[in-house]
Write a structure and sequence with these properties.
The chain is built from 11 helices and 8 strands. By secondary structure, the protein is an alpha/beta fold. Strand 7 (about 215-220), helix 9 and strand 8 (about 240) form a beta-alpha-beta unit. The longest helix is centred in the N-terminal third of the chain and has 13 residues, at about 70-80.
Amino acid sequence: MNNSSKKTWQELLRFPLGDRCQKPRNTGLTMIIDKGLGLGQTKDLLNLAGDYIDFLKLGFGTSALYYNEVLEEKIHLVRSHGVDIYPGGTFLEVAILQDKLREYLVMARDFGFSAVEVSDGTIDLDPEIRTRAITLAAEMGFKVLTEVGKKDPQDEFEIKQIIQLVSRDIANGAAHVIVEGRESGKAVGLYDQDGNLIVSDLEELVHGLEQPDKLIWEAPLKEQQQELILRFGPNVSIGNVNAYEILALEALRVGLRADTLKAVLQRQN
C-alpha cells in the first residue's frame, strides 16, 4: 500500500484507451495461470500487481502436487489480496472420471478455494453431469467458471453448439464462461495454427449471446490480447495470462504501450 502524499500518475495523466473498471469488478477481468509459483513469488506478484488480478488458476492438476500446508498458505495469501483462486479444470475432469465430484468440491472448499472451473476440455462430459457440477458448486458457495472448447485441435469447434452451451451454463449458475485457448494460444478454440483469431467465429459467438460480457477469453499471446482490447475496449475479460505479464497486459489495456497507443492515435486522425 502506497501511503505517500505524492500525486499519482493517474491524477496527472489520462489513460489513452479510457478508464478501467476497479475491483471488485464483473468485467475487465484478468485471470492468470500459475504453473508453480512459490510462496515468495506469489507474495511479490500480489504486492506488485494484485489490483490487476481477479482470478488465479493453479494450472492443470498442480493443486494435488503441493504440500497441504503450502497449498493452504498460498490460497490464504491470494484471497487476502482480493483475488479468487481455483484449481484447473482438468483436475475436476479427473474427479468426474473417478466419480468423486462431491468429494472433490468438499476438499476444495476445505482447502479454502473460492472458485472452481467446470470443463470438458479433455473428457466427454454428459450435459446432466455438467449441470450438476455447476449447480452443486454454486450451492456450496463457489464462484463457478465453466469452459467451452476442446484442447485437442482435431476436435471441431462448433459455434452454434458453443452458444447453446454458454447460455445453458449461465442459466445454471456459472458466473463466467471461459473460451478455451490453452497456454499456447495456437490451433485451439478461436485461434488458428499461428495463433491468429478466427474473426468470423468470434463475431458469430459474440452476436449469438445475450450476455457476451460473461465471457473470459483465454489469450496467452500479446497479439491476441491486443486484438481483443482494440475490439472490445480496456474492460474485456482475458485469461491464461502469464503471471509475469500482468503489468504488461494492464499497460496494453489502457493505451500505455505502443501497440495500443498507436491505435488510439490512428483513430484520432
